[in-house]
């Protein structure tokens, strides 16, 4: 069968995989290929056990794989045979040299740009999907158009705003699609080609365009604003705990102001995920680069409050459990950075486990989807950690439960049954405010919510 467009995506991760599956699903007339340097990841995409857990993803991969969606390790062939190339490789925070701990590490991204140049035999549209520092597209264009032959490249910025756990819903019904391009004849034509792809299922008025730098910056700023809301409410949760105010009531009252809005105002143990911290640090680095030190400090404080919230959670455990956790068994309910995903990148659970181990506690971790990643995250960490799938079994004999992920399954557990098997006094630290605190208190637990007065049996 001859396809109307041949699309390639380099990088089969959390962004590339689901996004391409959605394009293939919505556009049977296009052939979509996803390539990755990691053969294990590609083998998983070609199996029934996909490398990422995302509600609804399995169904759309099943409906398209082998028909118009293909996963492969043949990067060279993929570049040669496709005219539209999405780049969705990882851009982690740099861990070495200038900008270490802040700037984006662009080595994977640059390697990809050079590969595209090396293997291209015809003109291509290259689309940045990965979140990248402002002006990266310019660097990409410089690398690609360095050799003056007849092959030319147009680089577009098309940041992805999907959130994990709701990726399929977000891709199917996005708030907006943003496409940035150069204001040249070929840049504008490339933009139209990409608009045409999304217009297969996204209403035209939701597809917005901008200059390429605005597009790159908008992605980082969106994440910074979202993270800022969480740090704001978490900062106030600390104040609530001192003043007998209730953060849920404050959130509700504040969020009902239509200028503020109610979303992203749930106090928690802190935000995690691969994007927020990385993107804010990137923004901070960018501001510092332009000597905007006050602006840099302002955004950096969002990350500082997030760290403070996690440390506060640990110190609360320590002080309420008689100032020693040594030898105590503590059960972590949830290890994923949020519900409905197995992803643990930057999950507060990692830091909390590390700190609890420093206090010489024994840790039992339970999570419906993230135990495999949790084991990988904790390799080499000294101390006693065990992994138990069943939350009832995990809590047996423990002195405390710390709820770190807002999985629905934890809302409706039989806490009486759990209490009966725990060491007394038994405590629950609810880092997500998802359980019925009064009921747990009545059962006999000492209950420590986030941003609400503690309920304790003195
Ligand atoms: C985020 C952005 O939402 C998305 O648009 C972007 O493309 C990628 O980064 P994601 O990291 O998948 O998505 O998750 P998100 O739902 O934003 O949650 C991030 C973290 O904030 C999680 O740890 C979550 O538990 C926490 N959070 C979220 C809160 O603590 N309180 C809230 O009210 C909302
Ligand atoms: P994201 O959350 O941004 O999708 P991931 O880390 O989940 O990030 O995925 C990025 C993917 O890109 C990984 O599977 C990684 O193996 C892949 N990758 C990195 N560099 C290259 C490259 N040069 N060519 C192909 N794939 C690459």
List the helices and strands and how they pair.
Layout: E1 5-10, H1 16-26, E2 30-35, H2 39-45, H3 57-64, E3 69-72, H4 75-81, E4 84-87, H5 107-119, E5 124-128, H6 136-144, E6 153-157, H7 167-172, E7 177-181, H8 185-198, E8 207-211, H9 212-243, H10 247-255, H11 276-289, H12 293-320, E9 329-333, H13 348-358, E10 362-366, H14 371-377, E11 385-387, H15 391-395, E12 400-403, H16 415-421, E13 427-430, H17 437-443, E14 446-448
Parallel strand pairs: 1-2, 1-4, 2-3, 4-5, 5-6, 7-8, 9-10, 9-12, 10-11, 12-13, 13-14
Bound molecules: uridine-5'-diphosphate-xylopyranose (UDX) and adenosine-5'-diphosphate (ADP).
Model description:
This protein has 458 residues and is an alpha/beta fold. It has 3 domains: 198 residues, Rossmann fold (3-Layer(aba) Sandwich), CATH 3.40.50; 85 residues, N-(1-d-carboxylethyl)-l-norvaline Dehydrogenase, domain 2 (Orthogonal Bundle), CATH 1.10.1040; 140 residues, Rossmann fold. It is 43% helix and 14% strand. It has 17 helices and 14 strands. Strands 3-2-1-4-5-6 form a 6-stranded parallel beta sheet, with helices on both faces. The longest helix has 32 residues. The radius of gyration is 24 Å and the shape is elongated. The model has no long low-confidence stretch (mean pLDDT 94). The structure holds uridine-5'-diphosphate-xylopyranose and adenosine-5'-diphosphate (ADP).
